[in-house]
Each structure stands twice: as structure tokens, then as C-alpha cells.
Specification:
Helices cover 18% and strands 42% of the residues. Strands 1, 2, 3, 4, 5, 6, 7, 8, 9 and 10 form a 10-stranded antiparallel beta sheet that branches. Strands 11, 12, 13, 14, 15, 16, 17, 18, 19 and 20 form a 10-stranded antiparallel beta sheet that branches. It has 252 residues and is α+β, with helices and mostly antiparallel strands. Strand 4 (60-64) and strand 5 (69-77) form a beta hairpin.
């Protein structure tokens, strides 16, 4: 009996020595990250209309819901995540399934209660622990050879539409950008991943008398030069500065 007891004790020590506690996964950091939504409530999103989610450093949440642009806010505490009801543009989308997906995305967004990492992506869960949104990495951005028209001026959680009848355009080359916002402008430009750098912009000096046009031009040039991050999804491009202000463009 003593030998059996000693053997059992030895076996217990061996098993105990091989047992290890797996540490919990650290809470993901959302600040300054952008994602595409790959699934809503388990259903794959439309390939050409995948919603996007960009989490700003100041708690701002912006993106494209597959049809309209939206802007709101978020709070992250550990893995607990809450999202405020976003405001959005009101464009009608006639493509099959797009409006239905927009509604489903909004409903899922209102249920988000926590977040966890999943490979190179994220999963957003409701209060019951059910995955309501699956997020994946944003594809690499390439702007050279593209032209865009201003569709909104972003200031925190609000989006202001451009002055009516005063379009603003910008075109990108590999190392420069040019455009028109009453006056024509041009400057150096670089893009590394999602990080943007815009040099000092030179512009013509024509006076535009229409109300609000010169003020809009000054703000556009200011925000362009302050841009630090670029995000594109389908026909929407967003350039954002460190303070959360930025410019939204539609593909020309």
C-alpha cells in the first residue's frame, strides 16, 4: 500500500508540474484602427458594399455602412465596448441587398457590448456573448492616378456638406497632389500604408465672391495639410488629421 501511495503521489506531482494556466487574451486596442465588416450576424457582407469601421483616438467612430457614410462615437473599457447611435447621410442605394444590409448593420451596431481579437481581425459581441459583427483588415490603399470630389467636412462626430455650387476636387500622383477649391492648388504628397503626409500647398490668388466659398477653401487647404491618415472604401476616401477633423471625398 505504501508503494502504491508513493506512486500515486509521484504521478500527481508529474501531472501538476505539466499543468499550466493559459493567460487571457489582452483586450484589443481600437484607437487609430480601421476595419472592413466581413460578416453581420454570421452572414457574409456584400463584396462590393462591405461596411467599414474606423475608431479614432478621441472616441470617434466613422465609416461607410455599405450605402451611406456615418459618424458616431465609442467607448472601450477593457473588452467592454459601447457604440453611440451614429448619424448618417441619407443617400438611397438601389443595388440589390444593399439597403437591407445597411439596416442589418445598424441593428448589429446597436447591440455591441464587447470586443475580442480573432486572428488578424476582431469580433464584436452582444450582451449575451453572440458575435454580431466580424471585422477584417482593410486592403492596402493606392491613390496615385485617382481624382476625388469633396463630399463632406468632418469635425468630430459631425459632417458638413460642401457649399452648394462650389465643388472641390483633388487628384493624386505618386508624390504630389493637385486640385481646385475656388483656386487651383498643388503640393507634395506621400502615402505609407494608411499614413499620409501633405507638404505646404501653393495656390493661385483668385477671389471668389460667392458666400462661404473662400472660407471653405481656407478650411479645405488647412485640413489637407494636417491630414495624417487615409482610408478608402469603394468610392469613398477619408483624410483625417490628429485632432479628428478631416475631409471626405467621393470618386470622380
Amino acid at each position: 500500500m505504501k508503494r502504491v501511495g508513493a506512486a500515486l503521489l509521484l504521478l500527481g506531482l508529474v501531472v501538476s508540474g505539466c499543468t499550466s494556466v493559459v493567460p487571457a487574451s489582452p483586450a484589443p486596442s481600437l484607437s487609430d484602427t480601421s476595419w472592413v465588416v466581413t460578416r453581420i450576424a454570421g452572414e457574409p457582407t456584400l463584396a462590393d458594399h462591405q461596411p467599414t469601421m474606423s475608431f479614432g483616438p478621441g472616441g470617434e467612430l466613422t465609416g461607410d455602412n455599405g450605402c451611406n457614410l456615418y459618424t458616431g462615437g465609442y467607448q472601450l473599457s477593457g473588452t467592454a465596448l459601447t457604440v453611440t447611435q451614429p448619424a448618417q447621410t441619407m443617400m438611397a442605394c438601389a443595388e440589390p441587398g444593399v439597403s437591407e444590409q445597411e439596416v442589418a448593420f445598424g441593428a448589429a451596431l446597436s447591440e455591441v457590448a464587447s470586443v475580442r481579437g480573432a486572428g488578424d481581425g476582431l469580433e464584436l459581441l452582444d450582451a449575451a456573448g453572440t458575435v454580431v459583427l466580424e471585422l477584417g483588415p482593410v486592403p492596402p490603399l493606392e491613390l496615385a492616378g485617382t481624382t476625388w470630389e469633396l463630399s463632406g467636412i468632418v469635425d468630430g462626430s459631425s459632417i458638413t456638406v460642401p457649399v452648394e455650387g462650389a465643388p472641390v476636387s483633388v487628384s493624386f500622383e505618386s508624390d504630389a497632389l493637385s486640385g481646385k477649391a475656388c483656386n487651383s492648388f498643388r503640393g507634395s504628397f506621400s502615402l505609407t500604408g494608411a499614413e499620409v503626409s501633405v507638404g505646404e500647398l501653393a495656390s493661385t490668388r483668385m477671389l471668389c465672391n460667392e458666400p462661404g466659398v473662400m472660407e471653405q477653401e481656407a478650411l479645405v487647404l488647412e485640413l489637407l495639410q494636417a491630414a495624417a491618415r487615409a482610408e478608402q472604401h469603394r468610392s469613398v476616401l477619408v483624410l483625417t488629421g490628429p485632432d479628428g477633423r478631416g475631409l471626405q471625398f467621393s470618386k470622380a
